[in-house]
Design goal:
The protein is an alpha+beta fold and 235 residues long. The protein has three helices and eleven strands, in the order H-H-E-E-E-E-E-E-E-E-E-E-E-H. It has a domain of 138 residues. The strands form three sheets. Strands 1, 4, 5, 8 and 9 form a five-stranded mixed β-sheet that branches. The protein has a four-stranded antiparallel β-sheet with strand order 2-3-6-11. A two-stranded antiparallel ribbon has the order 7-10. The N and C termini lie far apart (129 Å).
Length: 235
């Protein structure tokens, strides 16, 4: 008797629960805005990852790959600009003689060795050029060019590809002050020798000197053209 009453009580309670649930669902769908509390909680949980994916941008979105049936993913280029390796200019045509019209000449005083000037000649043309012999330098209105240091002659003619440089040093004055006719010059012209080495060819160059000029005397002399700066400043 006790068990029968207990079973009836449970059946009645279960029926009441079903009725309440039906009423709750009806209220949720009747347009009054009343929501089921459990459904609302579920919607909130589902919406959060969607908002997170949206705010992280397209980088976080998954793209189908070839392995899962979708199209293969294209490689995305880096955000920073790519740097291209610059190529050195190449020579075209038959080599020519280096002279003022296809080169640029710069004159720079040296601190070591003292009383020296470094001449740098850069091939600005499109063809390989040869620096023959040594620079014929003329300071101011001088009537002659200084002699060359014979021991500085290289084993081969200096050859400059487009963009490359050759060098020569000018010994301006004696370090002991023992030479005569010392004076200051503020202009310089550099002439280039031809293959024979006995004449100047092409156009001369007029590199700038320091504003205060350079001091020269009778010991003035030059080196042969050199392929490297180190070889030029050794004299």
């Amino acid at each position: 008797m006790y068990n029968l009453r207990t079973s009836r009580t449970r059946l009645v309670g279960a029926a009441a629960t079903v009725v309440l649930a039906a009423l709750s669902l009806t209220a949720c769908n009747d347009g009054t805005g009343v929501n089921d509390e459990g459904a609302s909680a579920g919607s909130t949980t589902t919406a959060q990852p969607t908002a997170s994916a949206s705010s992280s941008g397209s980088a976080s979105a998954s793209t189908p790959s070839a392995t899962d049936g979708g199209p293969a993913t294209a490689t995305t280029p880096a955000a920073h600009p790519s740097t291209s390796t610059s190529k050195a200019p190449t020579s075209s045509g038959k080599p020519v003689t280096c002279e003022g019209s296809n080169t640029k000449t710069v004159a720079a005083p040296l601190t070591r060795p003292v009383n020296h000037l470094l001449l740098t000649v850069t091939n600005t043309g499109s063809k390989t050029c040869f620096l023959y012999g040594y620079p014929a330098v003329r300071f101011g209105e001088a009537q002659s060019v200084p002699p060359v240091i014979e021991d500085s002659q290289p084993q081969a003619v200096v050859t400059l590809q487009p963009g490359e440089s050759g060098y020569a040093a000018v010994s301006l004055s004696a370090t002991d002050g023992g030479s005569s006719n010392g004076h200051t010059e503020k202009s310089l012209t550099v002439y280039f020798h031809g293959r024979s080495g006995n004449e100047s060819v092409g156009k001369g160059a007029r590199p700038s000197l320091p504003s205060q000029g350079v001091y020269v005397d009778d010991s003035l002399k030059v080196t042969y053209w050199q392929q490297s700066m180190d070889d030029a400043v050794n004299w």
